[in-house]
Amino acid sequence: MSSPDDRLTARRVAIVIGLVLATLLGLALLWAVRRVLVWILLAAFLAAALKPAVDHLERRFVRRRTLATLLVFLAAFGLLAAVGAVIVVPLVDEVARFVERAPELVRDIRAGQGRLGELVDRFGLRRYAESHRDELQQYGDRLRKPALGVVRGVLEAVVGTVTVAVLAYLMVLEFPRMSAALLALSGDGAGDRLRRIGRECGRTVTGYVTGNLVISLICGSLTFVVLAALGVPFAAVIALVVAVADLVPLVGATIGALVAAGAAFVHSPTAGIVTLVFFVLYQQVENHLLQPVIMARAVRLNPLTVLVSVLLAAELAGLLGALLAIPAAGILQVLLREADLPRRLLRRGT
C-alpha cells in the first residue's frame, strides 16, 4: 500500500508534467498562428499611430467616428498610393525603355561595342559565357522553378497588407467601445489610471512614428543632394525610394543604399563609388547618432535605451523586432512608471 507521501509526490509529478505539456501545447499553438499574431501586432501598431488623427477629426470637424475613421484611413492610404505612383511610374518607363533598347544592347555586347560591350570584354565575361554556356543554361532553367514561390509570396504579402489594414480600421473604430467596456470592468478607481496609461502609450507610438519620419526625411534629403550633385538621373525619385526604405530601422538605410548606389553605378563608376561611401558613412551616423537622439526626444527614452532595445529586438525578431523595439520599450517604461516599480525596488533595497 502506498503512503500519503508517495501519493502526494506522484500528484506533484503529475501536476508538473501537465504544466510542461500545457506549456508546450501553448507554444505550439502560438507557433502555428504566428502569422496571424504578427498581423494583429502590426495592425495594433498602425491603429495606435492613426488613432490620434481620428480622435482629432472626430472632436473638431466630424461628429461620427465611422466617417472620421474612414477619412483618415483613406487619406493615409491615398498618400501611400501617391508615393508608390511617384516611384513606380518612372520605374515602369525606364523598364519600357530598357526593353526597347534590349536588342541593341545585346548586339553591342556581342560586338564588344558601347559601354556595356567594353565592360564585358574588359572583365572577360563574354569568353566566360561562351565557355560555360551549358552551365548557364541549366542555371537559368533552375531559376524558372521558384517563380511559383515568388508569385505565392506576393499574393501572401497582398493578403497580409489588406488584413492588417482591415484589422487596424476595426481597432480604431471600436476603440471607444472596447475602452469603455474595460473601464467598466476595472471600476472607477482604476479607470483614471488606465486612461492615463492609454494616453501615454498612444503618445509613445505617435512620437515614434514622427521621429521615424524625421529621420527618413533627413536621409532622403541628403540622398537627393548627393545624387543631384553627381548628376544621377531621377535623383528625386531615388531619394524618395531611399526615404521610404529608411523607415525600417537598422537595415532600411542599407536597402536604400543598394538602390541608390546601383543607379549611380549605372550613371558612372565614380558616382557609384561616391554614393556608396556616402551611405556607409551616413548609416553609421544614423544608427549611432540620429536615431538614438531623435527617438530619445520623440519617445522620451534615453539614447542608450533606444540603441540597446533596437539591437536586441533586431537580433531576436529580425525586421519586425527592429520596427517595434522602440515603441515597445517606451510602452514598457510607461507601465513600469505607473506600477511604481523602481521606487518599490529601492524601498526593498533599503
UniProtKB/TrEMBL annotation:
Recorded topology in the membrane: Multi-pass membrane protein
BP term (GO), one: transmembrane transport
Alphabetical list of PANTHER family matching this protein: PERMEASE PERM-RELATED (PTHR21716:SF53), TRANSMEMBRANE PROTEIN (PTHR21716)
One protein family per Pfam: AI-2E_transport
Entry's transmembrane regions: 12-30, 36-54, 66-92, 150-172, 213-243, 255-282, 303-336
Keyword Metal-binding: no
Taxonomy, superkingdom: Bacteria
UniProt name for this protein: Predicted PurR-regulated permease PerM
Protein family (similarity comment): Belongs to the autoinducer-2 exporter (AI-2E) (TC 2.A.86) family.
Compartment annotation: Cell membrane
Keywords carried by this UniProt record: Cell membrane, Membrane, Transmembrane, Transmembrane helix, Transport
Any one annotated GO CC term: plasma membrane
